[in-house]
Design goal:
Oligomer: single chain
Largest sheet: 10 strands, mixed
Strand content: 35-45%
Structural class: alpha+beta
Distance between the termini: 86 Å
Shape: rod-shaped
Number of helices: 4
Helix content: 10-25%
């Protein structure tokens, strides 16, 4: 080869010295000379370059039971909520609670003073006493025939009118004391001592001690899979996605034609949530949660690990383990065993946790790359540090960052 290079140099020498003889021909000659002078043992032989297998991990395509979920974000709310208004005018003489205070049913929250109403009530009671006395005086006279019946009837009518006036005054007086309609917590106090309160003025807002609820908007295409009593999993954002149990306890009888959704109410079955540390924390109205409702279960579907998939735009593919390489000149001596791989397109279906349904693609029992496949050349060879291809490590059950296949519903209101 060296003699060939020297001959080429003598043959091309005169031409290379001409103005047209530089450039690419000179580079070609240097490349040929360099290749001829390359020492032996450089990693190549007559069969071409030696390939280094890529270390990978694999998992088998399996049959599994997968589910589909309806998912929607919403907020927790108290089942009992109340906005307390003033029903009669008055002066806030005593405010007996503060925001955040827990109260029992019937507890007085504020006392209003109404001097005009008090005077009217006193006058009504005075008139009632007068006509009661008058009726008592006339009744014996009528019985003895000394007085006409008409006089007694007029006194009796005046007495009953005065009694009704007293009852109305007492009812107005009762409205001057605003009471808690149920046991719960004052969430807002909007009145202060000394304020003049007009009718329909908002004084307090409060929530009850009863169960928490949440609301979802269910797309009408999912109504076939929704029913009363259906279990629901709620993931609480404030507690790192810890879950609590709920169920659907009400479905509206109509679909909103503007949004194409039906409103559902969820009843939360727990008052607190268990954390990974073992502690339990209370659930509070207003917390954001993600509701997951299982709408479909498919047993016996062919599935592969999610991490084996490579996605690009609307395409997805995996690398499937092929034949073991037997030609010794195709692998390095440090890895005497290697396998070919095949890139294969995949059409996916349901996705749950780390598993993805295979509609078209590798068959059950085939092995796919789960680590080391990113950027892999389809013509590369691979080897398995954790074992042979026919004994792969199983795919892990821990959930990837992605959630199961989920239909996104509308956000629920309180």
């Amino acid at each position: 080869m060296r003699r060939l290079a020297e001959s080429l140099g003598r043959w091309l020498g005169p031409w290379l010295g001409s103005p047209r003889g530089g450039g690419h021909w000179a580079l070609l000659t240097l490349a040929l000379v360099g290749a001829a002078c390359k020492p032996s043992g450089s990693g190549e032989d007559e069969t071409g370059p030696l390939w280094t297998p890529v270390p990978v991990e694999v998992a088998s395509v399996e049959t599994r039971t997968l589910a589909r979920y309806l998912r929607a974000t919403t907020t927790l709310a108290a089942e009992e909520e109340a906005t307390l208004l003033a029903e009669t005018p008055g002066l806030a003489s005593r405010v007996l609670v503060v925001q955040g205070q827990r109260v029992e049913q019937g507890a007085v929250l504020v006392e209003l003073a109404n001097e005009e109403g008090r005077l009217a009530a006193d006058e009504a009671r005075r008139q009632l006493r007068r006509w009661e006395e008058e009726s008592a005086r006339l009744s014996p006279l009528v019985a003895e025939g000394l007085l006409s019946r008409q006089a007694l009837d007029e006194a009796t009518a005046q007495r009953e009118a005065a009694r009704a006036q007293v009852q109305r005054a007492e009812a107005q007086a009762r409205l001057l004391r605003v009471r808690a309609p149920f046991a719960g917590v004052i969430t807002e106090r909007l009145v202060h001592p000394g304020e003049v309160v007009a009718p329909q003025r908002v004084l307090f807002r409060m929530i009850g001690d009863g169960p928490l609820v949440a609301h979802l908007s269910i797309p009408e295409r999912e109504l076939l899979h929704i029913h009363l009593g259906q279990p629901v999993e709620l993931l609480v954002d404030a507690y790192g996605g810890a879950s609590v149990a709920a169920e659907i306890d009400h479905l509206d009888p109509f679909v909103d034609p503007r949004s194409g959704t039906l409103r559902a109410r969820l009843r939360v079955l727990e008052h607190d949530v268990a954390l990974a540390s073992g502690d339990r924390r209370p659930l509070r109205p207003g917390m954001f949660v993600t509701a997951r409702v299982r709408t479909e279960v498919r047993p016996g579907v062919v599935a592969l690990p999610r991490r084996a998939l490579t996605r690009e735009a609307d395409r997805a593919w995996v690398f499937v383990v092929g034949d073991q390489v037997s030609r010794p000149d195709e692998v390095t001596t440090s890895h005497p065993h290697a396998w070919r791989v095949q890139r294969r397109d995949v059409q996916t279906g349901l996705e749950e946790g780390p598993w993805v349904e295979v509609l078209e693609g590798p068959a059950q029992g085939e092995q796919v790359l789960t680590i080391g496949q990113v950027g892999l050349d389809p013509s590369a060879l691979v080897w398995f540090p954790s074992g042979e291809a026919n004994a792969p490590r199983p795919a892990t059950e821990e959930h990837d960052a992605a959630r199961p296949e989920e239909v996104v519903g509308g956000e629920g209101g309180p």
